[in-house]
Structure formats: C-alpha cells, structure tokens
Amino acid sequence: MGCTFSGLNALYDAVNGGADVWINENRFRIVRQLGEGGFAYVYLVKEVVNDSSASTSGGGGGLAKKVKETSHLSDDGTYAMKKVLIQNKEQLELVREEIRVSSLFCHPNLLPLLDHAIIAVKTNQEGSWNHEAYLLFPVQLDGTLLDNSNAMKAKKEFFSTSDVLQIFWQLCAGLKHMHNLEPPYAHNDLKPGNVLLTHRKGQPPLAILMDFGSARPARRQIRSRSEALQLQDWASEHCSAPFRAPELWDCPSHADIDERTDIWSLGCTLYAIMYGVSPFEYALGESGGSLQLAVVNAQIKWPAGPNPSYPEALRQFVTWMLQPQPAVRPCINDIIIHVDKLITKFSH
C-alpha cells in the first residue's frame, strides 16, 4: 500500500471517489474545506462509524478506542483534518517532526493531535513517488483569533479588558507547558493566526494554541557567524516577521537563544488581542520604514484604542515583554504571576 510512518496508513476510499479518507482503521467523510495555505489543506470531516465499532466503543466511534482523553472526542463525530502534500525529503522530515513534537504536548490550551498517517502516492512520472500526510485534530469552528479580530475591527469592536486577560492567560498556560518540558520547547510562531477561539455563552472565549510545525527545542548555543546566519535563515522561514523576536532578526555571533523568543511573540500577540494588529505593523502603518528596525528598536506606538481605553497597566505589561535584550525579558512563570494579578484587579 505504499510507505508508512510508524506503521500507519491513510487510504482514499475508491468507492466514493476520494470523498472518504481512511486514517489507519478509521474512516472519515470530507464535509467541506475549511482553509488552505502552502501545501496544506484543512477539511471538516465526519467519522463514518459502523454498527460494530459504535457498540464496542460506547457510541463514540472507532476513534474512541484510540484517543485516551475523552474530552477530545467530538459529540457529533466531526473533526478537522489537515492534508499536507509532500514533494521532497525535506518536506517529509518537517511533517514527521511536526507529528513528533505535537505528540509531546498534553494540555487543554494546546491543540491535540488525535491521529496521523503518512502514505506514498505515485506521481505521473514513471517510478516516482511523493507522499501525503493526514493529521486529525478536534475542530473549532469559531475560527482563529485573527479571524475574530478582523471581524471585530470591521465593526469597530474590541475585546473587553477582562476577555483580553482571560484569552491571554490561556495562551500563557499552554506556553508554560511547552517551556517546562525537558528540554524546553519554543513554539516559534506564536501569533493570532495560530490561536483558535471558541465562544462560550457567559464565559470568556476558549483559546487554544495550534500549529507546531515550527516548534523546536528552545535553547540553542550560537558560537560563530555562520551559526548566527543559519538561525536567521531558519527564523525567516519559520517565524512570522511581525511577531519575530529581535535576536532572530539580527543574531550575534555569540549568543544563547532560549524560550524567551516566545515571550516577545507573546507580547506582540497581547497587543494584537487588544488592537487587532501587531505593534510593529501598527508602527509601520503610522510612520513607515523598516519592519526589522522597528522590531530591533522596539518601536511601540499605541492606537487611540477603545473608549474607554485599556488600562495603562496592560500597556506596561506589553512593554515589559517587548524588551529587545532577551536577557532582561521575563520568562513564562513571571508572566503568569503578573497576569494573575491583572485578572484579579480588572476582571469583573
């Protein structure tokens, strides 16, 4: 049946002309496409359950026998499936690494990988094979923080101070889980587009950090100019520019890089939760110039903002995280202590 990863297979159901996908022993019907980017496509899928698997798993379908955390199972059998088209060995290794890293995490504010498979697919060229990867996740249909922010900006709406802090606290909790692993892992691409929101009646939105394709062990020793340039090249490909820490733009030839690169991105994301844009995108929109210079010099400008405006303590909190020198930037445990105090002070 082609190449497998960890002995797993994903197969199209030929009877349905590709409308159904098998991920290992479980079958899913594609409902509709949710999004795409690069070589990846995300679909809403629904598990197809036969009578025997439903009866043996208590009505939860075949997937219920594989997933240890029952809260990750869908009541109606719907999930999100990411399909990645893989055209070379480098892309194959990146997907394998994303699967490996995703499997390390278990936290309510980190999107869990429920199942996965990689298969070989024959191309039109004789004797040539590519691969396709299938990654299965819980589905969150309220969109990303970026989607929600764009919709709110169009209506000139803002999150309340209380919701800002509650969303941010959840991101900190997920990030703390990653930073406290041994070795610590950095997300490396923390931004509103990688945060899923689920709206809950009478409660703050549920925030879940996703997309661990750029996550790597956080701590790196840079001891030469060539190593510094290699890190910068890697960051330019894997870390979104408006949220990228200064040391990843202009890395010294002798530096100890650690998980505080994520703290910079966290500060940018808090600003974006408040104002719907990264601080450095906003600064460039106001005065123009170079994004890299704005980041390296920590040029922060503040919009007029909602009326009434956000508390000055919240702005100071952002500035505290956006320290250009990583050695004086706070760590995630410091951030959580501070945000707890702000929640106590400003939440109602």
In round numbers, the mean pLDDT is: 88
| Name given to the CATH homologous superfamily of the largest domain | Transferase(Phosphotransferase) domain 1
Percent helix, as a range, is 25-40%
Radius of gyration: 22 Å
Q: What's the arrangement of strands in the largest beta sheet?
A: 1-2-3-4-5-7-6
Name of the CATH architecture of the largest domain: Orthogonal Bundle
Strand content range: 15-25%
Global shape? globular
Low-confidence segments, given as residue ranges, are: 1-18, 55-59
What characterizes the major β-sheet?
7 strands, antiparallel
CATH topology of the largest domain: Transferase(Phosphotransferase), domain 1
Distance between the termini: 58 Å
Given helix and strand content, the structural type is alpha+beta
Q: How many H/I helices?
A: 11
Number of strands: 13
Order of secondary-structure elements = EEEEHEHEEHHEEEEEHHEHHHHH
- Oligomer kind: single chain
| Tally of distinct domains | 2
For the record, what CATH class of the largest domain applies? Mainly Alpha
Family: Belongs to the protein kinase superfamily.
GO molecular function: ATP binding; protein serine/threonine kinase activity
EC number: 2.7.11.1
Protein name: non-specific serine/threonine protein kinase
